[in-house]
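Data card: per-record layout.
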Amino acid sequence: MKKVIGLLVLVTLLAGLVAVAGCAKEEEAIVTPEGRVTYEDGKITIKGDEETVTWTVSEAGEKVLGVPVPENAELEKGSVAVVEGTEGAPEEKWAGATFYSPDSIDQVIEWYKSELSGKKGFTDTSTELDGQKVGLFSIRSGDIIKSVIVNPGGAGGPGQSVIVIATAEGTEVPGTEE
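The structure for this 178-residue chain is written out next.
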């Protein structure tokens, strides 16, 4: 259950980021095989048949991510959040943010390769999806995982590239064992 909850929280982190920015309604919920996921008053709650866990979401500064960001990349306002387990949840801590870069996806991917490739625990699983390059990088040290996803920006969006950074501490994400 801990692995599934960890992965689920990563997905709901995005919903939490939207809610922190004031865009979500109190009664909105996502129903998953693990239970009903809701966001209210800065808390993500996963209510399953046998257990309920709660995660607290708080705004933070981008330094909490511990991952370099290109100088010309701009932080999406209100997108930096920290999610920590509280009631019934594992002792895990997640943080995430979204940035926009005016640089092409190729430039941003190459920048991250040069910045991160020498770090201990570095992996590059970049790929191509629907004919578009996607940068997928991670650094793992003990129970701390720092991930960077670089996607092409949308038409008319604030940048040519979108950078999503997520960090996780104390997790058991499948496939990340040392």
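Known properties of this structure: The chain has a mean pLDDT of 77. The longest strand covers residues 132-141.

See the next section for split statistics.
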